[in-house]
Each structure stands twice: as structure tokens, then as C-alpha cells.
Write a structure and sequence with these properties.
The chain has three helices and no strands. About 10% of the residues are buried. By secondary structure, the protein is an all-alpha fold. Helix 1 runs parallel beside helix 3. The model has no long low-confidence stretch (mean pLDDT about 80).
Length: about 70
């Protein structure tokens, strides 16, 4: 899959549901990083465990990349 064409639209409400419902800027940056070609082979077939990273955007993105 060509992750450079993957788009995610985020809609967030105020932090009334706690910090787990927030997409943190660090998660956005990590998704941008794992979209780079250097990562394409590293995620294939791997198991990814995401801890304490908000609503799970990085794990979903890694799964889309083949993890």
C-alpha cells in the first residue's frame, strides 16, 4: 500500500472525555514518520502494541501499513 496517499480526518471534541480521547501532536508526528519509505518493510507482519498514545491513531496507522 502507498501510505503517502493515506489521509485521516480527525474530529475532536473538548477534553470532556478525558485525555484518552485526544489525538496528541506526537501521534501525528509518529504517523508521518512511519509513512516514510524507510518504515515500509519494518512494519510488515509485525505485532504492534500501542500504550498511552491517546485514541490509538498510531496503532491504526501501523495496521494499515501491514503490521
Amino acid at each position: 500500500r502507498d501510505q503517502s496517499k493515506t489521509k485521516v480526518k480527525l474530529y475532536e471534541v473538548a477534553l470532556t472525555h478525558g485525555v484518552g480521547a485526544k489525538v496528541w501532536r506526537a501521534a501525528e508526528i509518529l504517523c508521518e514518520e512511519i509513512a516514510l519509505p524507510d518504515w515500509s518493510g519494518l512494519l510488515q507482519g509485525k505485532t504492534v502494541l500501542e500504550l498511552g498514545a491517546g485514541c490509538g491513531l498510531c496503532g491504526l496507522y501501523a495496521a494499515h501499513g501491514g503490521a
